Amino acid sequence: MQEFIKINREDTVAVALKPLSKGSTVVADQNTVVLKEDIPQGHKFAVCQMPEGAPVIKYGCRIGFASRQIRPGDWVHIHNVSTALGDVLEYQYEPRIKELPKASPSSFMGYKRGDGGCGVRNELWILPTVGCVNSVARAMEQEAKRRFMLGNVEDIVAFAHPYGCSQMGEDQENTRKVLADIIHHPNAGGVLVLGLGCENCNIPVLMDYIGEYDPERVKFLQCQDCEDEMEAAMELLGQLYKKASGDVRVECDASELIIGMKCGGSDGLSGITANPAVGAFSDILISKGGTTILTEVPEMFGAETILMNRCRDEETFARTVKLINGFKEYFTSHNQTIYENPSPGNKKGGISTLEDKSLGCTQKSGSSPVCGVLEYGERVREKGLNLLSAPGNDLVAATALAVSGAQIVLFTTGRGTPFATLVPTMKISSNSKLAGYKAGWIDFNAGEMVETKTKDQVAMELFQYVLRVASGKKVKSEEAGFHDLAIFKQGVTL
């Protein structure tokens, strides 16, 4: 195993792939460096002299400025690096577009839906319109599991959330759009929409957002309108179960796949192993006609021009600029700095500035052109790589990916996390230590990229694994029964 990596020949830092001891001698390109401090795994050390104010270069790009003089062999981290990010910027479209060659088709076993969608699961979902009925929804889930053999219905899940009432403006719209999108998700063989009756987001109001739907697969129950909501729910769930039980997996082309991509609990290896592997996976899927969605807009700050210059045309570029600057304005409108990131866990793992984090995060985008830009709660329309407006919060961002149509979410991590969203949430570790330590959380180990395998090997293994998950293999969070729904809240609660 390599001891360290210098990612780009222009870099002024290298990254330790394992803990390195003070006094060790390393040779980075033509530079012989004696380490002046212990360097933890995933952390950076200087390979050349950097005076105060000099740019610190990683991934071939600036990740900040030296806040004091940095000597060769020094540990480079938050104590001697400061962000170079500013506020809202103006951007120039300088296209650097690389079209991917078409690849031979691949397939998986999925569920064809009547509206043209394709699901990778066949589940019954209980969806509250308001947080007031969360406990009732969970009780219905448990009772339904007792009454109905699962068979072709792979799970029955209640998705609790705290919203649907006492909301105003954009928050209220977000909740309604998100719930409507979930109702149409192809991973659901049937949905019971569970309302209370007096909430802002009541079922009659929600109907305008839902639009056309299959009445055999979507049922509605308003608790205040019936004497025994439990028995009423069991009657409706029984009807949904009967319909979904007739669904069977059939061969589907990989071009039907929509895969969400995000990261959380990142470390200094995330941008070297897991995220580039996911980026290479994205290129493989897109070359076969499929679709990927990248989100976490605040974690694009500092690397946004890379994505902007890969936009397929000026209209997509303009939408990407609006995406970035709109999120910066969201921060400043709340009197917050736009670069108050990374998190404590990120810093412990070796990430020093938001630029450092962003340049690592955007590795998940691969090299394909940006074909679509989505507002929060908007369903994907364009094949290929899409950018989605959502925050960096793991639960909110992962939910946003599912709501936009992702059947599976790929979640890279260097620290580990057990959560999952509405759809299978596959955890990909950036290092082998985490993969072993949290074997109950981690589905795929990308740490082998700096041990025994190339990026292309890992990416193809990941692609094959995704096809198996799409064909019914459960990920660790599914086996544990973890399902989370988180809706983006921005404004006032009444």
Structure description:
- This protein folds into three domains: 4-82, Archaeosine Trna-guanine Transglycosylase, Chain: A, domain 4 (Roll); 123-246, Rossmann fold; 255-480.
- It has 13 helices and 23 strands.
- It has helices spanning 134-147, 169-183, 203-210, 229-244, 274-287, 304-308, 314-333, 344-348, 354-361, 394-403, 432-437, 455-470, 476-480; strands at residues 4-5, 13-16, 25-28, 31-34, 44-46, 55-58, 61-66, 75-76, 81-82, 107-112, 118-119, 123-128, 155-158, 188-195, 218-222, 250-253, 258-263, 291-294, 370-374, 384-388, 408-413, 425-429, 444-445.
- It has a seven-stranded parallel sheet with strand order 19-20-18-17-21-22-23, sandwiched between helices. Strands 1-2-5-8 form a four-stranded antiparallel sheet, with no helix packed on it. Strands 13-12-14-15 form a four-stranded parallel sheet, sandwiched between helices.
- Helix 5 packs across helix 12.
- The model has no long low-confidence stretch (mean pLDDT 95).
